[in-house]
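Help wanted!
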Amino acid sequence: MTATRSSARRVRYRNLWRSTHPTARRLIVIGSVITAVFLVAAIAASLVAPYGQADFKGIPQLQPPSWSHPFGTTNLRYDVFSRVIYGTRLAFEVVALSTAFAMGIGVPLGLLAGYAGRWLDRVLVLVMDAMYAFPSLLLAIVVAFALRRYVGQGVPAAALAISVIYVPQYFRVVRNHTLAVREETFVEAARAMGATRSTIIRKYVLFNVVQSVPVIFTVNAADAILTLAGLGFLGYGVRIPAAEWGYDISRAISDAANGFWWTSLFPGLAILFLVTGLTLVGEGINDIINPLLRRRGVALGTVVPTAVGIPSGQVETSPVVDIPIDATGEGGTLDAVAAVPVTELEPVRPARSRRPPEADRPPGELPSLEVRDIRVTYGSARGPVVAVDGVDLTIWPGESVGLVGESGCGKSTLGRAIVGVLPEESSVEGRVVVAGDDLREMSAAELRRARGERVALVFQEPMTRLDPLQRVEDHFVETIRAHRPEVKKREARRMARHALAAMRIPPTRARNYPHEFSGGMRQRIMIALGIVLDPELVIADEPTTSLDVIVEAQILDLLDDLRRRLDMGLLLITHNLGIVAETCDRVAVMYAGKIVELAPVDVLFASPKHPYAQGLLASVISLDTVKLASIPGSPPDLLHPPVGCRFAERCPFAMEVCHRVEPVRARLDDGGDVACHMFPGADPSHPGQSWVPQGRRRGLDDAPVPGEPVDQ
Amino acid sequence: MARAGGGSLRTYVLVRLVLAVPILFILLTTTFLLLRVAPGDPITATLGDRVSDVRAAQIRKDLGLDRPLWRQYISYLGKVGQGDFGNAITTNRPIAKTIGDRFPATLELTLASMVVAVGVGVLLGAASARFRDTPLDVGGRLLGIVLYAAPIFWLGIMLQLVFSIKLHLLPTGGRIAPFSEPRTITHLYVVDSILTGDWAALGSTLRYLTLPAFTLGIVIGGIFIRLVRVNMLQTLKSDYVEAARARGIPERAVVFRHAFKNALVPVVTIIGLQFALLLSGAVLTEATFTWPGLGLSLYQFLQNRDYTAVQGLVTFYALFVVAVSLLIDIISAWVDPRIRFS
Ligand SMILES: Nc1ncnc2c1ncn2[C@@H]1O[C@H](COP(=O)(O)OP(=O)(O)OP(=O)(O)O)[C@@H](O)[C@H]1O
Ligand code: SF4
Ligand SMILES: [Mg+2]
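Answered by r_m:
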C-alpha cells in the first residue's frame, strides 16, 4: 500500500515538475548542481584538498595562482584552495548544526504557543517578533559575544549564535500549523474517536512541519552561510586556524591593499557560488510548492464570498437630486441621457415590445457586431482546448442579446475574444466585425484604439477592476484621452461626470477613490467607463453576479435604458434566464463552445427548440438562478470534443445520426435558429431533412433511440 | 470599523505606538540579559588581568555593577529612558557621546545605500517583470540572487581592488579627505556641504561615499529586484490592469500608471523590513571601509571585548529599529488609506 502511495506521490511530483516553467526548472537544476558540487567537496575535503587547512610547511608566502597552488597562497603560507575546501566543510557543519538547534528550540516553543494559546502564545509571539525585527547579524554577534565564556569559539558556538536568527521561523510555522489543526473539525472528530492530543499533534502538525522543512532549510542555509561569514569577518566565527571563509577574507584585507587579490577573491567566490546555488534551489522549491499549497487550500473548501457587502456608512443611493440638469442642452447623447430625471426614464421602456429581427432593419444599416465562425483555442498544459468553436452572431444597434449556458461553455471566452483581451497562451480565428470594420484585421495599435472607443467590456467582478490608487475621475480622464488626445482635461472631467450621472453616481463623488464605493456602485462606475466614449457595442460579462438582487435590478435597468438611448448593441452574458426574459431582445444558448439556439426572447421562452435549451428552461424554477444540475450529466471535455452533436450524450432524443453528423444552425419559420437534427437544415448535405426520434426518451447511459428521416 | 477621515490616522498612530511598547521592552530586557547577565562580571570579562583587583572593584563600584541585578535592571531601563547608554569600560567615555559623534556617518551611509538599493531594485525589478521570461528577466533575477549572495565585505574589497588600487579613482576608506569637513549643521556631510555651498567638501564627501554606499546599496538592491519583480508580476496580472487594457489604454500607460505604481506601494513596507538588514550590512561595510560610523565603533568595541560599550550600542540599535518600523508603518498608512481600516 505504501508503495502505491509513494508512486502516486512520485507521479504528482513529476507532473508538478513538468508544469513548472522551463526557466524555473533550469534555475533549480543549476542551483542543485552547484550545491551538490560543494557538498561533495565538503564531504571529501581531505581527498580534494592538496594540503591540510593549517599546513604551511614548504609552502611559499603570497604566491599568485599557479599549477601547484591553483588559488595562490597567503602570507601565513596557507594554500588558498585547500582553505576554501575546508571552509566548505565548516560551512556545511555549521549550517546543519544551526538548523538542528533552531528546530530544537523553535519547534517545542511553537507547539507550546499554538497548543496552550492565550497569554503564553501572545508573549511568545511578541518575543519572536521582536527577535525577527532585530538586525540578524547583530543578534548573532550579540549571542556569540555573550556566550563566548561558556561555549568558546568552536563550531557549536557559531551554530548556536546563527540558529537564534532562525528560531522565529520554525516557531512561526509550527505555531500556525498547530493553531490551524486545533481549529480543524477533523481534529475534533479524531478526538471524539479516542485519539489523544499527542497523537493528533504528532500526526498532523509534525507532518505539516516536516513538509515545510526543506524550504525553510534551503532558504536559511543561504542566510546562515552569509551570517557565518559575517561573524568570522568580525572575529566571532570559529577559533583560528580553522578555515572559515569570512575570517580568511578579513585577514586578506591588507593583502588586497597591496594588490594581492587572490587571497580574498577565492573565499568570497566560494560564498557567492554556494549561496547562489542554495538560493536557486530554495526559491525553486518555494515556487513549486506555493501554488500546490494554494490549490490544496481551495480543495479544502475555502469559501469565496459571492455577495459583496456594503461597507458601513456607504449606502446604495439613487441620487436623483445630485444630477445636474444640462439646461443648455449642448453636448453629446450621453448628456441628454444624464439630464433626464429618473422618474421620466421609467416608462420609456415599453413592456414587452421587442426589436424586430434583422429582416426589419432599415436598409444599409450596419450591425453593431458581426461575428463569423470564430474559434478560440487555449494552449493548456494538457493540450489545446477549443473553448469557442465556430460561433456566428449578429447584434444590431440598440439590440440586446443575452448569452446563456452552463459554466465553462465558453461565454466569457467569446466576449473576450470579441474585444481581443484573451490571455497570451490562446489563439483566435474568424471574423469580428464592428459596424463594418473587422477588428481581427486591425494592427495592434488600431485594435487598441477600437477597445473602449468602439467596443466596451464590463467584467463580472467590480471590486477589483478599478485601480486602487487612482481616483474614479482619473480613470475616465485617462480612458478618454487615450482615445481622444485632443480632449482637454476639463472637458474629459465633464464627460466623466455626465457618464457617472447617467449611471446614477453622484458627480460629487468623482474625486473619491475606488475603495470608498460599494460593489454595486463600482459596477455602475465600470459601466459608465464603458459607455463614456459612446461605443457601438457593450459586452457585459455577468455584470451583476456578485451583487445582491436589488442592486442587480437597478444596474440592469440602467444598462437597458442606455443601450436604447445610445443605440448601442449589448451582449449580456449571464446565468440568469430571468434577466434575459426581462431585458433582452434575443437569446443565444451556448453549449460546449457552440451556439446551439439563437432566437427572439418570446420565441425561445414560449417554445424552446433545442433539447438543451428546453432543459435549461425546465430547470428555471422561478426567476432565480438556474439550477443546471437538473439536466443529467455534464458537458463534454473540450480537450476531446465528441463527433456529431456535442449534447448527444445527455440528450433524451439522441439518435444514431446525432453521433455521426454535427448539426449546424439553421433558420426556422418563427425567426429562431437552432442546431439540432430534429429540425430541418441541421445536416448541410441533406438541407430539407429532419429526424424524428422514435420510442421513449433515453436515459443518460442508454443507447441512442431509433430515428426516422423526414424530407420536406 | 473606522470611517475614512482625518481622525483615523491619529488613532492608528496611537495604537501603533502602544503596540511598540512591549516589543521595545522585550528587546531591552533581552539585551540586558544577554550582555549584562550572561557574561558574568563584565569588568573581568573585558579587562581580564590588565587591572588589579582593587582597581577592578573600584570600576565596578563606579559603574554600579556591585548592586543586585534587579536594581541594575531598573536603573538600566531608567537610564535608557533618559538617553543614557552607560559608559565604555575601555575608554570610560559615555556611549551616548560616541553615538552622537558616530551616528550621523552611519545615517548618511545607510540613506545613500537605500537610494542606490531602491534605484537599482526598482528599475531592474520592474524591467524583469515587464519582460517576463525574456533573457532580460532571467538576467535580472540572477543578478538579484547573486547580489544578495555576495558577502558585503568581500564585495567591498573587490571594489576597492578595482577602483582604488588598480584604477586609483576612489579612496579605500574614511569619510572625507582630512581637513576638508564642511561646517556642521546636520552632521550629514552631503547635506552640510550643499547647505554651506562648500563644493570642495561635497566633492570629497561624494568620492569617499561612493564605494561604501554602492557596496551596501547593491547588495540590498538584490532583494529589491526580486521583490519589485514579484510585486509587479502580480499587478500586471491584476484585474484592474486587464480592465485598463480592455478600455484601450496604451500598454505603456498600463505598465507605468497602473502596474508599476501599484507595485511600488508595498515597497515602502519593504524598505522598512530591509532596514534591519541595512544596519547589519552597515556594520560590515563600515568595518571594510573604515567608515567612522556606529558600526565601526561596534566593531572596535567587539575587538576590545568591551561589554558595557557593546551593551550600550546594542540598546541604541534596538531603540532605533523600533522607531524606524514605527515610522514606516505610519508612512504606509498615510500613503495608502486602506491600511488604516484594518
Ligand atoms: N486561460 C485559459 N487557459 C486554458 N483554458 C481556459 C482558459 N480560460 C478558460 N479556459 C477554458 O475554456 C472553457 C470556457 O471558459 P469560459 O470562462 O469562457 O466559460 P464561461 O462560459 O464564461 O463559464 P462561467 O459561466 O463559469 O463564467 C472552459 O472549459 C475553461 O476551462
Ligand atoms: S442533434 Fe440530436 S443529440 Fe443533439 S440535441 Fe438534437 S436531438 Fe439531441
Ligand atoms: Mg464566464
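OP: Thanks! One thing I noticed: Chain A touches chain B through 85 residues (CB under 8 Å).
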